[in-house]
Batch of 2 targets.
Target 1
Amino acid sequence: MNEIVFDISPELEQERIDKCICTYMADLSRNYIQKIIKDGNVWVNDTIVKANYKVRVDDRIKFIIPDSVEPNIPAQNIPLDILYEDAHILIVNKPKGMVVHPAPGHYEGTLVNAVLYHCKEDLSGINGVMRPGIVHRIDKDTTGSIIICKNDEAHNAIAALLKTHDVTRKYRAIVYGVIPDEQGTINAPIGRHPNDRKKMAINEKNGKHAITHFKVLERFDKYSYIECQLETGRTHQIRVHMSSIGYPLLGDTIYSNRKSPFKLEGQVLHAMTIGFVHPKTGNYVEFEAPLPEYFEKLLTILRK
């Protein structure tokens, strides 16, 4: 068990205890913190409190994070759209609505469950039991190409390329608005949103370096079909960057308050092309995931 103790600073006076702990422990979800409180693992001045307790400046907070228990992640016979496979890597075209790896309370139906069944024991173990083979990820409602590493050597090689921004990643997206420029570059740091920890935002103070290049492929009456190439790979990078310049992704309910006239599951974003130096051969390889059916149908509608 991990016991953590801290005092309350003046600016947090009268905040709920769960929100207060979130401020100090930004890597823990509020739901998880509320569970810790519910289980009686949070004390204020040696008294167990509930989640609605409002802190005072002279309070001393103590809480215990229970030791983690390795969950059983089942291998599941879930069909995979495989773009390429050899003894070292697997390139998969991830469908919309599929989460890449398990998380607490969500241990089934993910890409990891599927590749565990497909690859059996041939997966890198660097990221532990929750993320075997996973070296990068895309959002649940983003479709397209993702690399799975079958051994630690391949994992380390791809991770190094990602760190030095030497992986080609081209996305296709449809955004609200008609972009007048043929192409452009957005260079703005991305970090956690100051008021909503589920969101990312342009954060000049605490954000990480982030660059997105975009070009317009086609214009419609109220929308633009674009290609985005990532120079960096921050969480929600394309969604945050395009929203920041006034062209949020169609269907994005987090970074846009516009209502889509189409029936969509989240943002219209597809990881189309991925290219890198193969970890074993040393040759540059590139793979392309075709646009999903819903994306093609949407383009057909917009072209009428």
Target 2
Amino acid sequence: MKKLFKTLVTLALCATLGVTATSLASCKDDPYTITVGASPTPHADILKDAVAKELEKDGYKLNVIEYSDYVQPNLALEAGDLDANYFQHNIYLKGFNDDHHTHLTAVANVHYEAFGIYRGSYTEGALTDILENSKVLVPNDPTNEARALFLLQDAGLITLNANATYNGATKNDIANNPKNLKIEEIEAAQIPLSLPDAAIGVVNGNYALQNNLGTAVRYENIPASEQEQYVNVIAVKAGNEESEKTKALKKAILSEAVKTYVQQKYNGSVVCVF
């Protein structure tokens, strides 16, 4: 009751001061407000619609800040502007730390989203019947590009070198491209918007949901040995793994209530791993 009373007082003060989701100047030190950066869909939806309710039971308020890219939420977490973020998978987090010298760590494996091949101007016909010299869009960040290329290989469109791996294959690893497809690497968030200018594109699950792309022509089937690295995680800055906020957030997001929400909301396109 004492924690709840303090929380209510703080929230009332924040409301009086006019604090919004993107301006926490007056309440950023509130021990009962947890600020999480997230991609809009499905991450922010899961947080706002399901996780927030679970946190309220323990006297916490959840503040969600939405980001449209994969860089800023990690930089904000490193800078201390966020308590956690929820948008990326394990392998992307590792690569980001290596490339940007950040100190972020995963504290909870939450869900998995399947990549899919979506139609652009190639509106009819089997994927293997795609016209020669067609433009194909793939994400330009290393881990997601590798994942996209393996999906194109599974679809019979290209063949990768025998030593290509999910940890960093690029279009330079394409050994055989019988249709001479023009593989174009662009920012993952831009692929759904650029589909009309390409024959097909390989789209991250969250961006497919966010842009209402519907059912993919083909979904990936990642080998079980590779799946964990593509599980979306809750990340915090190193040193905060056992903070009260982190423990509360983990408890809430790994709850049965959140799992039920995800199952009912996304009908298999987003799969909880806990």
